[in-house]
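User: Sequence in, structure out. Go.
Assistant: Echoing your sequence, followed by the structure tokens.
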Amino acid sequence: MGGYSTHIRRGTLLQSDSAQRLQGSLAQQLAVMILSGELPEGHVFPSELDYAEQIGMSRSALREAFRMLSAKGLVESRPKAGTRVASRRQWSLLDPDLLAWQFEAKPSLKFVFDLFELRMVVEPNAAAFAAERRSEAQLAAMGEALDMMALYGLATEKGRYADQRFHMIMMEATQNEAMIALASSILAAIAWTTIYKQRKRALPRDPIPEHRALLDAIAASEIEGARAAMTELVRLALSDTEISLLDEP
């Protein structure tokens, strides 16, 4: 059981000045190992005392990392049975942190396709609602976000933030609280697929025209036009991501 601990870089986490960052870094490392399959479902960790010593961490830091992972469904602890990796069906796969860690661990094709299926279910309908219910202020804010996205491009943090803002405002324009509750997961999926598909190359195309077509349809209150525009936007984003994933060695 202890063999897995050698993959945690002993001592490197101790350089942080913040205990919270320290614990977060440990949780991240463990999460990536779980999500990549390096720590498989059902893997039982050594006792806190032994494991903390193996990886050069305090027991309190390890306990906090396990607490964070437990809250996201990745591990489970039981009296006398210790802490083990939970079954995948318990993982909070749409948690924004888990999405980030999943892309760090290199996602499977199926996982990426599942994300885009979710986007295809939610976002075209959200766009249709937005076309019917948006306010003028929301239209203006989406236009400003799109201008910033065009100015900086998705290769930059500012450009990706503008993209996030564009989609967030659109979700808010649905006036549907259940849909808005999904926004953080949807936005995380957009952000991490955008970063992932350009990690080795520039984006294969300019995504601004599709976003502009979507905004125009929403501004014109064209419900079916907005639905179709968002469908096309997600379809092209999936195509770009497929190119990147299939290009992997």
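User: And one key feature?
Assistant: The chain is about 65% helix and 5% strand.
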